[in-house]
Each structure stands twice: as C-alpha cells, then as structure tokens.
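Practice record 12: protein with adenosine monophosphate.
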Amino acid sequence: MGSQDCIFCKIAAGDIPCCKVYEDESVIAFLDISPLSDGHTLVIPKAHFERFDQCPPQLLADIVECTAKIASAVVSGLGCDGYNVLCNNGAAAGQEVNHVHFHVIGRNSGDAVFTQWPAKHYAEGQAEVILNRISKNL
Ligand code: AMP
Ligand code: ZN
C-alpha cells in the first residue's frame, strides 16, 4: 500500500533524501527535519497507513520495537536525561503528515520543550459514563 503524494512514502522509497538512523524490512527511522531537540527522530512503517490503530498488529510490534531501540540510542548517544515518544493521529491531534510515525524526542531537565500539560478533573460520575462509552466499542 502506498500513497503517491505522501512525503514519508517517498522517503521510505528513497525518492526523497533523509538522515537515516535505521532501516529494516518493515520500518525506517530518520531525523526530523525540524527537531524539537537534538536527535529528534521519526520512526515510520515503510507501508502507508495513516493512523496508529489502522496498522496490522505485527507491523505495530515492529514499529514499537524499533522505537524502543531508537529511544535507547538517542539517550545513550546524546546523553539525554529522558525522552518522549509521541504519535499524533488526526489533524486535531497535530498530525501534519498522514503516514503514521512515532516521534522520539530526547529530553533534558529544564529544556522547556513541552511547557504545557493541560490536565483537568472529571466531575462526579463523569468518569463512569466516559469509560462505558469507550469500553462498549472494544
Ligand atoms: P506530525 O505533526 O506528527 O505529523 O509530524 C510530522 C513531522 O514530520 C514534523 O515534525 C516535521 O518536521 C517532519 N517532517 C516533515 N517533512 C520531513 C522530511 N522531509 N524529513 C524529515 N522530517 C520531516
Ligand atoms: Zn505514506
């Protein structure tokens, strides 16, 4: 499966250059062109799937395995204090490239890469209503 207009399909096919960190039969990892921190890496499947939940299970396993490998290498190689793994799905969630990808973002204390985490609280009884709406779709 591929998408003619997809920039990540073109990178996976070698038609557009990238700073390649890793590649195997099913996945490829490369440096993000506009990094949030040094070593910000994207892990993508070579096959075109738009969202995380649309990927077949074995491919998900391959992506996650590669993402863990990359995270470990970013931390060891660049001496980060930690890292974020991020997968934006849908425009509302900030997905700009509609080919599923995991961001691996090395973090250091006080780097102010993400300054907001707008946590809220459930009103009385609201959590039960919400979990019912989710669980009946599983
Ligand atoms: P998202 O908002 O989760 O869809 O993230 C897309 C990411 O792809 C952004 O962080 C971009 O900087 C990155 N990106 C877009 N084009 C390229 C490219 N040609 N090479 C590397 N990274 C890219
Ligand atoms: Zn694609």
